[in-house]
Amino acid sequence: MDLQVGQHSWCGTPVDRGGWIDAMSTIGLSCRFDASHSGQSTASYLHAGEMLIGRFELAGQTVSPNLRAPGYRAVDEIRLLIVRSGSMSVEQKGRSLRAGPGDIVLTDPSFEFEESFREPTALSIVRMTKTSLRARGLAHRLHSGCEPVPIGADVSAVRELVLNLTAQVGRASESLLKRMSAQCIDLMDVLLKPSHAAFARRSGATIVWLARQAIARRIGDASLDVPSLAADVNVSPSGLSRAFKAEGLSVMRYAYALRIAHAGRLLSEAPDLMIRHVADQCGFLNAAHFSRAFKDHHGVTPREFAQRRRANRAPRACESVRE
Predict the structure, then answer these.
(1) Cβ neighbours of residue 202 under 8 Å, at least 6 residues apart?
(2) 286 CB neighbour count, 10 Å cutoff
(3) Taking every annotated instance into account, which residue ranges of this chain make up the domain HTH araC/xylS-type (predicted)?
(4) Domain end call among 195, 218, 253
(5) Where in the sequence is the domain holding 80, given as residue range(s)?
(6) Residue pLDDT, tens place only, 148-204
(7) Count of the separate structural domains present in the chain
């Protein structure tokens, strides 16, 4: 009889040691328990977009990458671990690393290493694919299996973002977690410290993709311009303009069209919104400028557009009342 039944919980389900070991293998990890140390272990995680995000509490066990896990490609991922409480030690080819509360560790499962948790240790973990990092023109390789991240002001800010993201598992909607995870991946350059050479090798298509993501995030920012957008994606303003021109686009015309499209969605979903509020949410300096731009694109003013959407909704509302 396994006296450890009930001490471990995997996504809310009680498991014994054997069940815990099997569950860990499903996320690419091998696990063995330490006979001289014990404690409760819990795992709560989910897949959100291109990330796996979760909160783990580990005690009395040693964990290592499982490159032979069925249907799992650990070699194509980078993991980020934040120690919330307790401590962990990492051993790799005679090199030791210890991490305590607040420390951040990056790991690459394509290397061999072991993570030991003797005392109860709480972790926030995010796992991202190297493919998703490469697509953004970010560094996607580590020099070893485990690297500590020096803590600075920017790193601390990203750490708080990751801690908040993992704290929302089981609380926030899946769609919101997916959006938050995408933002998190976009900020990994702060932790991965890519070289200037890596940025220089990025294709024009990658630069445009990154810029489109940045424009979408700053859709309500009236100060958006080519220099600030270029700074967001770590390229020169001329380099950004050339990348867009190669795809037959203009940076600001694209941003302009995205704002108008966003305004149309807002007015379609909530036709009673005040026009000045829509203008503000879409990055226009004032309602008059927004109205002129909107009419040039749609052929009607925002107010007329909203009235038509409101009128189209009315018959359906009446029908539902009659039913």
Answers:
(1) 137, 235
(2) 11
(3) 209-308
(4) 195
(5) 8-195
(6) 999 989 899 999 999 999 999 999 998 899 989 988 988 888 888 644 444 445 577
(7) 2
Is position 1 within any domain?
no
CATH number of the domain that residue 304 is part of: 1.10.10.60
Q: Are residues 99 and 170 in the same domain?
A: yes
The neighbour count for residue 183, using CB atoms within 10 Å, is 12
User: Are residues 183 and 219 in contact, defined by beta-carbon separation less than 8 angstroms?
Assistant: no
Quickly tell me which residue has 């998703």 as its tokens.
132
Indicate the residue among 176, 195, 214 that finishes a domain: 195
Residue 20: CB atoms within 10 A of its CB come to 22
Cα–Cα dist 189/137, whole Å: 9
Q: Is 56 helix (H, G, I), strand (E, B) or coil?
A: strand
Report pLDDT digits (tens) over 110-148: 888 999 999 999 999 999 998 888 777 777 778 888 889
Q: Quick one: 233 and 89 in the same domain?
A: no
Q: Quick check: 318 pLDDT over 50? A: no
Burial (CB count <10 Å: 0-12, 13-18, 19+), residue 41: buried
C-beta separation of 128 from 64 below 8 A:
no
Using one digit for the tens of pLDDT, what is the confidence trace for 282-309? 999 899 999 999 999 889 999 999 888 8
Asked whether residue 6 carries a pLDDT value surpassing 70, the answer given is no
